Amino acid sequence: MPPEGVVDALRKVHRSLRPGGLLLDVHPQPQPSPFEVRTGAGATDLGQLEYSPDFIRTMSNADEALVSLDQDGTFRNEREEEFLLLHHFESLAEWQDYMAKEAQYYLTPDATMIETIGRGLATAGAELVLREWVRTSRFRRLG
Amino acid sequence: MIGLLDPEGVETRVLHDLVDFRGKDVLEIGCGDGRMTWRYADDAASVLAFDPDEPSIAAAREETPERLKAKVAFRVAGMMDIDLADAAYDVGLLSWSI
Hints:
The structure holds 2 protein chains of 2 kinds.
Chain A: H1 3-16, E1 17-28, E2 33-39, E3 42-49, H2 53-71, E4 75-89, H3 92-101, H4 111-121, E5 127-141
Helix pairs in contact in A: 1-2
Chain B: E1 4-5, H1 10-18, E2 25-29, E3 46-51, H2 54-63, E4 72-76, E5 89-95
Parallel strand pairs in B: 2-3, 2-5, 3-4
């Protein structure tokens, strides 16, 4: 959605909130998401997954819209927190199903990466862990 | 859900750290299959959660625990086409939706 579309949507949310109500935005951050294989012996970094340019643009548009509504007095940004959200996969098939479902958000991993993950998960009890940076922002409805 | 997302409960902790959902009327935008809804709905007074993706809403309805059915409503709708009453909610939640 372009920034003006997001602004329109957020103005609609603003109208639906009671005076002093809160808007909580949760969305991933554009930096690549590292992933690792964990076994009983420890964790091995395998690389990182990158978001697609389209999705990075969507995130940027969202940020731009929220900043503009903070600046024009529609909402006031009261607090932000960033955290790592962990996604655990027990098999290569499970990870590939996830990637197929979320394909629109990521750059397609190359064959070498998939092979590396497959090798890492071949160990009994191994799991793949994807770490995504997420930001949560709390806004107060003004006006 | 494919894989296991946030078994550590970090997202839930952050949500509740930022907002006290107790007794609140919550509007959730882009709820998908209700993944985020389950993290706060027990505390809320009411929840209207919507998403344009019909299969996701069907899954959310199917997974709604009995104890939440009286206060959580899921709708198939997009942000610009849903009818929302003015000044009706205490909290708006954009769950990975903008």
